[in-house]
Specification:
The protein contains 6 helices and 4 strands, in the order βααββααβαα. With 142 residues, the chain is α+β, with helices and mostly antiparallel strands. It has one domain: GIY-YIG endonuclease (3-Layer(aba) Sandwich). α1 packs across α3 (70-80) and α2 crosses α3 (70-80). The termini are far apart. 28% of the residues are buried.
């Protein structure tokens, strides 16, 4: 038999739909580190509002991705920084426990248009912060 294609192993979640997944931090690290094409292709062209759930404390963090390479670039920053993505409260959490990022889960709350401005994206992000109370009871501080 002739080998036509070699795909990554099935030990990670294959991309199916923007709203049908919750990625653990270890799954996200594997996807970003190995540049899995199914994930990279769709997340690079997508802007959106996302959620990080701290499964140990139950606290939530809401963020938005509206720059070049969309959600892929933003979530890659979390991988490259061991889970904090240069966010103040997440940084403090990881300073006290460098392995705490292993309790994070990533998901998408809302897709945003490709033409959205930074101000418009931040406005949508703020709406979700208010809905979920992440400034008062979660991991957001702005």
């Amino acid at each position: 038999m002739e080998v036509i294609e070699i795909k990554p192993g099935l030990h990670y979640k294959q991309f199916t739909d923007y709203f049908d997944f919750i990625l653990s931090f270890s799954e996200l690290k594997e996807i970003v580190t190995n540049q899995y094409s199914d994930w990279k292709k769709v997340l690079s062209i997508t802007k959106g509002v996302y959620l990080i759930n701290d499964t140990q404390t139950g606290k939530l963090y809401v963020g938005s991705a509206y720059g070049e390479n969309g959600i892929w670039a933003r979530w890659s920053a979390y991988v490259l920084t061991n889970g904090h993505g240069d966010n103040k409260m997440l940084k403090e959490l990881l300073d006290s426990d460098p392995l705490h990022g292993n309790h994070f889960q990533f998901s998408i709350l809302m897709l945003l248009p490709k033409t959205i401005t930074a101000d418009e994206a931040i406005k949508k992000e703020r709406l979700f912060k208010n809905k979920l109370g992440t400034n008062s009871f979660g991991l957001n501080n702005n």
